[in-house]
User: Fold these one by one.
Assistant:
Number 1:
Amino acid sequence: ELQPCLSNMAARPLVIKTSTQFSTKVRLLVKLPEVDYQLRVKITFDETLPPGQGNRLFNISSNNTKVMDVESSSGCLSAEFKRLELRERKATYEPRGNQSSLPVTEELHSICYRGQLRIQGLNIALETTSRPLVVISHVCQLPSAWASVMWCNMLTDAPENLSFFSRALSASWSQVSEVLSWQFSTLVGRGLNREQLSMLGDKLLGPQASNNDCQVTWSMFCKENLAGKSFSFWTWLDSILDLIKKHLRDIWVDGCIMGFVTKERAQALLKEGQVGTFLLRFSESHLGRITFSWLEQGDEGNATVHSVEPYTKHSLSVMSFADILREYRVITDGVLTGNPLKFLYPHVPFDDAFGKYGSPQRDEEVIGYVECNFISVSMFSTSRPPRSPFPELCELSPGTLDIINQTISPSADGQISLDHLEWE
Amino acid sequence: ELQPCLSNMAARPLVIKTSTQFSTKVRLLVKLPEVDYQLRVKITFDETLPPGQGNRLFNISSNNTKVMDVESSSGCLSAEFKRLELRERKATYEPRGNQSSLPVTEELHSICYRGQLRIQGLNIALETTSRPLVVISHVCQLPSAWASVMWCNMLTDAPENLSFFSRALSASWSQVSEVLSWQFSTLVGRGLNREQLSMLGDKLLGPQASNNDCQVTWSMFCKENLAGKSFSFWTWLDSILDLIKKHLRDIWVDGCIMGFVTKERAQALLKEGQVGTFLLRFSESHLGRITFSWLEQGDEGNATVHSVEPYTKHSLSVMSFADILREYRVITDGVLTGNPLKFLYPHVPFDDAFGKYGSPQRDEEVIGYVECNFISVSMFSTSRPPRSPFPELCELSPGTLDIINQTISPSADGQISLDHLEWE
DNA sequence: ACAGTTTCCCGTAAATGC
DNA sequence: TGCATTTACGGGAAACTG
């Protein structure tokens, strides 16, 4: 009865959330003579799953049988199953948590499609299986689930290997980087360039290893925390994909965001340019944040690079990043100075890069009110910094602090002292 | 079998959302001799509902039977039904939308509690009914539903009157104002004072009528739009309750928010005070917003009152209102001037009122970054206002505008011109 | 106690019904 | 078509569960 696969399917729902609707489609790739028959297809979930592995079990919602129709676009037979839903089958007998059990986002599942075709006296069984699926119960599991799907599809063509992650294969950096760039292309409309990928490779493997196209293990990619951080490489990168998707799509597509560049390299690049040159970078120490760094004139000819505290998704929901950049101001000792952001690295005048992202006109007149906006400001102070821009002084006694303040205040300006701080 | 009610219930779930869990409790108010019996109570939904009214019908989730237990606190018998859920029974036969059908938030329902008690040879049927309930399918219906519950409980003690809203009674303003103040007490921790209630009464009925304790109809309270607005009195008031609950609780409880005061009255009050006096008012033209108004020195001795564009829930989610007030700045012709908010009306120095609401310490040091905050600023300009604070000039030809500007700019400062604008 | 996982439910958006 | 009402589901938080 199990014939070689005569049909195939458009793999779409690679990650499925329980209690959430999804749909799937099978297509018959063989043209049949136009005779009078019905081809009824039935889907089942996890038929081929090896039992007793401690995997979760799911019931698929009822509408699991369909008659294939002629698809108008391609002319071939297809069946689309809509409004399907998975619900976990709480098995009291076979508890989860056996020895081997993987995290849920590495547990692979599949949909099986079966049809019976009776033609010219022959009885042909048609069957195919979806690509591996990951089933999650909450969107917060989606990044990990997506990583599994990516990794698995990158390294194997065998849809039936549902225990891939019990011993996940490694991938070469060139494979990984291609997949990453492709993710950016498809999800946010612009891939990653050589410099951006090189920074990512260094981050994942270190500079030597990524040049030599070393192997990236699944664990390095998705499970181990980055050095000194509390999140993995993919968790970090995915948080940035999400940030771009929600708040930075336009300026990302236009290439205004260098983004993947270390603090050291950003500093070096900016120091080559003229005062007022700036660039946009994703935070490496926090998830889903972006900052800008710019070159500011110090008072003895030695220009220094500053960065603002990175903006979160929530900040950007109040004000677009382009508006934040346009309206950014520094207040030094209570005096408002101009916007220090003049040239997007290397030499693009601010308005050439960001002029087109005008803040949308307010939808209604607010007659009678003083108009009021949030703007993003940094307070610099030459004497008594409001929230201790001199963290190393905080532990000193008040007396000592007074002496230091007195020493600093006559000659220094606020920006010089910032020179001594590290920045990310 | 229908005996007089021997039991009563703690009415809690006055508004129930479909597919969302709720619980309810019945208590037996009569002490029974301690004999060996079980008192089993069953709940049903909408038993007493008059049929054929076009009302929606609901099924209550299964756990509808319970044995009463002795409650440790009171010593009386009670049964708590937990994890109940309503789901609409889609009746294909009796469609909704009959002649009489009310909006869903005015459709009253009830839970019926029934017990059978066999004691000393007697067979006693116990029965009681909940207070009227409103069933909604989405939280956006909650304000209207809550209004119905309030109104109905204010005007009738008869729980069985489920068609109350087919001809809703009116209430006197004194009844309504008591209920409103009580809403503020219980929901946000501080009721409404005489001045606040008087403003609300004027808004609802006009000044004469509210002084004479006129009648407020259900329609005026909840259905008709306020004059010139696109929302009803209750919709507006509820949006403010919600704003306070989520973002202003502390300063509301401390009485820092005058809140309910018309623009004219605020203006008059502030003009009595010294320059820098300010007060906090809820927007009357938009839902769930708050603004501040302050007295600013004009340049010819005639102080004027300004208000900023009201803040929304979303604005306040970025920065607390106390912080917005503390950091508010005016920029006049590119020059930063100090915070104009000095004294909370009538005479409270800013820090005495708001000093205690320090912005919470940032949870982590952001070493190496220039600290950066949003602050709320207004740009005043003496010559060319950026986003037309002079709306009445917009229609003039550019040439005329130039002439006017030239006339104004030498002597005027930005604040004088604002004097001519209405403000809310 | 705790981490991985699921459930609960508000609030935005879209779909549906009348 | 427009308005009233419900459904869908992301995301924060709480509950669950070994």
Number 2:
Amino acid sequence: MKTVLMVAEKPSLAQSIARILSRGSMSSRKGLNGTCSVHEYTGTFTGQLVRFKMTSVCGHVMTLDFLGKYNKWDKVDPAELFSQAPTEKKEANPKLNMVKFLQVEGKGCDYIVLWLDCDKEGENICFEVLDAVLPVMNQAHSGEKTVFRARFSSITDTDICTAMVRLGEPDHNEALSVDARQELDLRIGCAFTRFQTKYFQGKYGNLDSSLISFGPCQTPTLGFCVERHDKIQSFKPETYWVLQAKVDADKDRSLLLDWDRVRVFDREIAQMFLNMTKLEKEAQVEATSRKEKAKQRPLALNTVEMLRVASSSLGMGPQHAMQTAERLYTQGYISYPRTETTHYPESFDLKGPLRQQANHPYWADTVKRLLAEGINRPRKGHDAGDHPPITPMKSATEAELGGEAWRLYEYITRHFIATVSHDCKYLQSTISFRIGPERFTCTGKTVISPGFTEIMPWQSVPLEESLPTCQRGDTFAVAEVKMLEKQTSPPDYLTEAELITLMEKHGIGTDASIPVHINNICQRNYVVVESGRRLKPTNLGIVLVHGYYKIDAELVLPTIRSAVEKQLNLIAQGKADYRQVLGHTLDVFKRKFHYFVDSIAGMDELMEVSFSPLAATGKPLSRCGKCHRFMKYIQAKPSRLHCSHCDETYTLPQNGTIKLYKELRCPLDDFELVLWSSGSRGKSYPLCPYCSNHPPFRDMKKGTGCNECTHPTCQHSLSMLGIGQCVECESGVLVLDPTSGPKWRVACNRCSVVAHCFENAHRVRVSADTCGTCEAALLDVDFNKARSPLPGDGTQHTGCVFCDPVFQELVELKHAASCHPMHRGPGRRQGRGRGRGRKPAGKPGTRRPKDKMSALAAYFV
DNA sequence: GCAAGGTC
């Protein structure tokens, strides 16, 4: 029997589609990566009985990057990234092992049906899948078609079944347009980012961002925030005047009337109108009207609307809201949360999900009434052909979900119920008055039936006292006419919700990536989130945007994306050649880049005003090995040491504190050593600022400390303080932390493993001798006489931390505090001794011992 | 260390 491989874009879709096509009779198993499942069933395909294997990828299989050597920032001129630097496709998520997985499942299959999402990205993924799978599939008989594309616009039985009988072919042009986008984004984004970062980090000490990034989505996103900031800054308040009249309605009630002229900006004119009206005793009713109006029930919920409401009403940032929604989805509480569609498919079962909510403690009454009286037909929304709108999938309580997840679920559910509720109906009454020659109006709203506002109370029409009944010609006594002086007020900073709307409107990002771009500009410290989730640009953000405006406004305008996308669409439609469009667009941006580099002084002038030069930043800390003057320690991200005399900057490891290390010097370059530590429960090690930036030995990596240095005799080096191979990671060595006493620590120089040992010992040294069993270096330990754990009155003991029975009791394995609990190994019990790294006595392990002697040997080779 | 796009 022949086999048909079918591939969807995500595991959830593979399951839904397989369930539809197999009519529920499939057998499922997990794939080798543990994430994707394979659903199998038999059926007919091109008139023959076949075995179907339905599975999925997880989004893109491949990602684009430069060849390795072009990722070295200090060796490559960013200008080279536009053309010379070659790119390669790498596996997008190596942990998922997607290529291998596809090949295992695809091996021996005869046909392939591609069920990827029906957008350009999906079309591109089709070819990523084919690249992986075609080489291992059975060879086609001559002329037989083996590759098929299923095109569907919703995940409904009819759509999926129709797609299956009308299979087409994947569209190469659409896929190519995505290849072009990837390459443009990569080359342009990286070139500008590297140039800006290096240029400004090399000049200023307090930028407070370790990366000055640029991108065709993130930069316009920042642009919106700064545009609002500029409007606020340049706002000049204007004074205006308003007439306000009050008439007596009943004996104890008065009505406030609005002036039909709304406001005037000339005081004398306002005064004139006041003079014409203030002596009038009566207000005459000129007209009355009563209109029934409706406030529309909401459209079905899509992603961006959910993110807007989450930000503005629930106070949840888009990134966080999306994570919460994803969790609700994987736990089965809501439907797929990434969709642009606001229209329920015709076959969508609205009553099913509604019935599930019929006993919910919060909205049972509303739901029961809807079910009894009949639901309202939802409004016609937009069908993007991706996924149905976001709806609840099962009932849940606050106690069950807790906190944030509950609040988002509650909103999604209330929104869903609202979409099948009736519109809110209210009566709008208007009375038009004349006082002297001036006209005034009074309007009031009274609710006829609340409709959906019952379940979305925050949308309800505010309760007002109804207007008095009257008719044309009636008169009311004027109680007061007065003139109010007011001022126009500036707009406030952009809210996240407004920003999302702007991004959506200009096509910046997609429903899935909008939260990422907003998060980016926060993380880069271009904007900060203020109260009410308003985004206030920082000095850095403002200077960048103003700089772009000065040099080349197109770099920050929202049109930068749409202009490129227009070109890409030509590729997709087969109207333009992929190579030509790519080459042309790269050429345009290469020119822009060179112009930007040549004009950078224009942006620098703005930087100077807000930021201090390196030489004027930081506090003197340690001495330079070249000039022996003090270098300044710059704490702001990225932390570094700067020697203003030599005009050199040495970067330091991030996310920790730096102190002077006893004024000790590196024997190689005479730089004073500093001590890096990662907080009280973490690790610490000395490092030489020069060696860390210019590793002296072949096997020492950039950015590392003395605990990775293979200097044969320096007392701080790995050679002198290293004990043995790490118990958990492959390449690390456990190194004694010489500063850690009296709570002595031995820490891995690569991973987060830390062993706490010999509390209260007053001296610990690494001996030149090694353990006969495991080849680790022995430790020489002196204990305090009063608190010695040694038998008898002994204060001195030499032994192996892993094998010595006395020491084993005194060693406890832990992970540095910064390590996430998820990645922690098994508990402390395993920590005694060498854990899984331990090898049986007398049998040398397969792994080369990385002890002192072997490290030395490696160095002398 | 960089972009934006999928998805987990």
